[in-house]
Amino acid sequence: xxxxxxxxxxxxxxxxxxxxxxxxxxxxxxxxxxxxxxxxxxxxxxxxxxxxxxxxxxxxxxxxxxxxxxxxxxxxxxxxxxxxxxxxxxxxxxxxxxxxxxxxxxxxxxxxxxxxxxxxxxxxxxxxxxxxxxxxxxxxxxxxxxxxxxxxxxxxxxxxxxxxxxxxxxxxxxxxxxxxxxxxxxxxxxxxxxxxxxxxxxxxxxxxxxxxxxxxxxxxxxxxxxxxxxxxxxxxxxxxxxxxxxxxxxxxxxxxxxxxxxxxxxxxxxxxxxxxxxxxxxxxxxxxxxxxxxxxxxxxxxxxxxxxxxxxxxxxxxxxxxxxxxxxxx
Length: 330
Fold this sequence. Notes:
This protein has helices at residues 2-29, 46-62, 77-84, 99-106, 141-151, 165-177, 189-198, 208-216, 266-279, 283-291, 304-324; strands at residues 35-39, 66-70, 92-97, 117-132, 156-159, 182-185, 203-207, 221-225, 253-261, 295-296. It is an alpha/beta fold.
């Protein structure tokens, strides 16, 4: 009896040890196959462009193929839910923007919880620009502010859909101006930008990555940038911030981060974070991002803990903005 029990304990110990060694070996060998970066928005948008830039640099550091897949819909929540439910092995990752922090206040049913995701690190942040159709009379923000005060809901403000960066920026702007401009939602940035260039809508608060070419081509009027400091991009450097233009405390940047399913082994998360850090030091990536007015993250927000703290603060901030705007979760 004692011999059989001892043998059983020995067999169990060997099995547990074997599993531990096997898991450790699997983590040590990561990655053994292609890694997928899920972008919860359509191809060609700012998030897609950034993900593809990061994918190319990650490929060099991870030594494997990194594929970008677009899973769009419902303000980014469909793609996010896909990653939250994916196998926690490090082969399915999420690249998402500020909308991840606002989704809990905008949607009743998300199909996931924020706690279903592990934070890897922040990638970048970029300002938006407040732009208008060329036929608008105001030539600076002070004049525009007067027009907004006088016209109210007669002026319309385009956005790329509920939860989009342009929508969030518009909410913050309307909240701080205490105005009642009419929001005009579109299904994406491209049709909204097309209509503002065509003069069908008056204003838009859009990411600099999309608006800079139109500003350079004088297809739209630029009134302000939304970050705390002016942009270093030549085409935008002469445009004042909204703080300079008379809205103290206005600071809106669009940031992107990398996420994994929550139960992903720590050893794998560490490898992904290390690869992300190396990718964000890639001179070619930095050059491409800076040319668009984007700041590549190099501070503590690149760490999982720093990323999570920043994210939690953004959730608190935007929940208040959305609540103050009287928006009810869908």
